[in-house]
Amino acid sequence: MNRRHFLSGIAAAAGAARAAAPEALASRARFRTAICAYSFRDALKAGAMTYDDLVRLAVETGVDGLDLTVYWFPNTTDSFLLPLRRLAYRMGVDIYSISVRTDLCRPTAELRERELGEIRQWVDAAQKLGATHIRVFGGTVPKSVAEDQAAGWVVEILRRASEYCGQRGVILGLENHGGITERAARILDIVKRVDSPWVGINLDTGNFRDRVFEQIEMCLPHAVNTQVKTEMRREDGSRGSSDWDHIFALFARHGYKGYMAIEYEAAEDPRVAVPRACQRLRELARKYSAPA
To answer: Model's pTM, two decimal places?
Structure first.
């Protein structure tokens, strides 16, 4: 085969792939694995573990990335963020997300402006770490305030924040974390009203209190990151082991593409439980990710 025929063959194959790609790619699941820093909250708070240690743990457990809960960052200066980014790069670990505290149900313009300013600061920090996702909380509806009104405040902050995020390539994921985001219907209402490609849902598989799988499935079309728990709430309010196989199958049916990050909150020592959970996470990611 001469060079001209070879290049023509490549061009034809690429054209055929592009023609088929939109429908095929939309239905093809693609899973990546990660550890949430919150899994080691006690050790990080006590100083017995550092964020550098988490990068090394990701290598040891074979996961792809880290979702760094920022609560125990010593600071957000370049002297902390940039060496951490370099270490992760050299170790082949993706710091793809940071998780921050927010309360977007703020009743005054001044407080909403403050929340917006803090989100913008975390967007800047995420950029320095190379993260393209930030998990945010909706917050709690103030007493004597209608939920619809509070939802409007959340929409206002997220819509304004999305403009800043869009200029910097960072996605905000609103978590189902109780309060105003206790129910899937309200989360969807907020995200749809924000109407931005830079705002989606950070889907936590362990936080819904009833109709758990139904509410998870409602959120899936807008999920931009997922945190998986080893335990889930049952319909009677108790907690039991999560059926990860069922969860991955559900996500795969919806063509989910993204990270599944273990956020460990059970009683067993996370130094023992998390590596074991990561092994299972990797197995399921391989099982349910469609071949290229």
So the answer is: 0.91
